[in-house]
Amino acid sequence: MKKQLLIVDGYNMIGAWQETHRLFQNNELEQARDLLLKKLSDYAGFEGLEIICVFDAQFVPGVTSKFQVHNVLVIFTKEDETADSYIEKLAGKCHNALTTVYVATSDLAEQWVIFSQGAMRIPARELEERVNLRKQDLTRHATTMTTQKPRTSWADAQLDELKKLMFEIE
């Protein structure tokens, strides 16, 4: 089975997702980033895919920084490098016969470039919907698990049936 890699344009998601956009409008950028990364981490765990989230740091002096937050590799680009250009290079480098690359962005110019490299795109709103649906599924599943009464013991008839099956297998 092919590895699934999702590359996320971080600030593009923050600007498009409802909860993170509200935080951004209230000058709470760090909280918006944290919320985005938490949601992406939960999604990565539930879907079993690798996620890389890229943020612009083009006007901040220094080199590219990379670190892990939850299940997400976070990358801040180096000075004079946009997240778009970094994502385009990364998508081209990672897309191969063993890896399917998806790029989450609503930037049309970036979408055309990643298409030309064989990567797939997911618009920001669609990723938000997917993440929210998975969260609802997980919540529903957790609720079901906690409301079901666990089996405390096996009935004699069930044990007898298991013994019969064991003898048939031998």
Q: What is the CATH architecture annotation?
A: 3-Layer(aba) Sandwich
Q: pLDDT under 50 segments (min length 5)?
A: none
Count of helical regions: 7
* CATH fold call: Rossmann fold
Helix content range: 40-55%
- Can you count the beta strands? 6
What is the level 1 CATH name? Alpha Beta
Domain unit count: 1
Radius of gyration, taken over Cα atoms and rounded to an integer in Å: 22 Å
Classify the secondary structure makeup into a structural class: alpha/beta
Q: What pattern of helices and strands is seen along the backbone?
A: EHHHEEEHEHEHH
Overall shape: elongated
Strand content: 15-25%
The main pleated sheet reads as:
6 strands, mixed
Secondary-structure blueprint:
Layout: E1 3-9, H1 10-16, H2 18-25, H3 29-47, E2 50-55, E3 65-69, E4 72-76, H4 83-94, E5 99-104, H5 108-116, E6 120-122, H6 124-147, H7 156-169
Helix pairs in contact: 1-2, 2-3, 3-6
Can you summarize this structure?
The chain has one domain (3-168): Rossmann fold (3-Layer(aba) Sandwich). The protein is 55% helix and 19% strand. The protein is built from 7 helices and 6 strands.
